[in-house]
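Re-run with default settings, no changes from the original entry. Doing this only to confirm the output is reproducible before filing.
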Amino acid sequence: MTRVEAIRNHALAALDRIRWLTPLLGRLAVGLLFMSTGWGKAHDIPKVTHFFETLGIPAPGLNAVVVAYSELIGGTLLVLGLFTRLATIPLIVSMTVAILTAKLGDLHGLFDLVGFDEFTYLVVLVMIAVIGPGAASLDHLLCKKLGWRER
């Protein structure tokens, strides 16, 4: 059993050395995605407005602008790791609304829900909100510079 324990300890130590990478990868994955979708929406607000009208979303023109710039700015902040936890809030709301509107007709059970891309993004966003941006972020550097304890 000693050999198995040594291998386990070695593997855990190696994983611990790259712990900083996990929040960075999560931030980049969803951040780049939202930057891209936000950019596209911001450059075709009439199309987004029409889509929101078909979903019955109230004030579709206003909400199209809000969603477009929330995704663009929020995604950019996630990539940078700046105001990270705050940046997740409008994106979490956006993904929740997307599931409850655009995807609701396709939702017939738990397995449908976990198959939605929006649900995956929602889960990653919640994880980032809870664990924070990690060491490879501007938030980390800012806290260090200001002498604040990270949480």
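The chain has eight helices and no strands. Helices lie at 2-17, 21-42, 45-55, 60-80, 84-100, 110-115, 117-131, 138-146.
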